[in-house]
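// run 5 | inverse folding | seed 20
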């Protein structure tokens, strides 16, 4: 199977709209993260399920019941019926279907992606989906790119002891500490600021299950 994202070509304008305003922030809230990929809050681009945006949709499901479930979740406007467009959040997050979960096993089954390829693949998919839903020039794209920049340690030398340099980004030591200092499957958010209020958030970011496979 082709391991490139099968979303529609990158758009310069959005093909969908939401009712909630989005306040950009230089420190986006991270919901889930790996070494070089992050899911940021208040995006929801992946919840735009219109089949027309996924021409190879039928290739992803071995079980016809899964495809039927996907189609039943797609509203007339293309958005998932469980997505709250005002809150920009999933209303059934804990009970969402397996194919809605960004996990190594899920992506391996649907796209043939191996764990070491996950960061690169997820980043590519997110950028394509955000571009298609909100546009290439959008606050959602800017916020996602800022999160990735922080994780990649932009403008920071790997042997700087983890100190953040002027210009943004975190060094390798700080990145490793942020990802592994907490117990179990949770870590502190890399940038724990709520983009709506600008206030410190108490939420934690989930550590991606493929993180230990990355270089």
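// decoded
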């Amino acid at each position: 199977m082709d391991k490139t994202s099968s979303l529609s070509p990158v758009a310069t304008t959005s093909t969908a709209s939401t009712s909630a305003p989005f306040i950009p922030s230089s420190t986006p809230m991270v919901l889930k993260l790996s070494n070089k990929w992050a899911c940021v809050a208040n995006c929801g681009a992946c919840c735009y399920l219109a089949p027309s945006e996924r021409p190879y949709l039928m290739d992803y499901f071995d079980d016809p019941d899964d495809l039927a479930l996907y189609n039943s979740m797609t509203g007339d406007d293309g958005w998932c019926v469980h997505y709250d467009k005002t809150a920009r959040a999933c209303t059934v997050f804990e009970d969402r279907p397996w194919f809605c979960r960004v996990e190594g096993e899920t992506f391996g089954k649907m796209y043939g992606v191996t764990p070491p390829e996950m960061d690169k693949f997820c980043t590519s998919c997110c950028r394509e989906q955000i571009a298609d839903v909100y546009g290439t020039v959008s606050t959602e794209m800017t916020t996602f790119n800022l999160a990735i920049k922080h994780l990649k340690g932009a403008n920071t030398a790997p042997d700087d002891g983890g100190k953040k340099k002027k210009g943004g980004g975190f060094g390798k030591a700080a990145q490793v500490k942020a990802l592994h200092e907490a117990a179990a499957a949770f870590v502190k958010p890399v940038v724990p600021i709520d983009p709506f209020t600008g206030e410190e958030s108490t939420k934690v970011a989930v550590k991606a299950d493929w993180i230990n496979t990355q270089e």
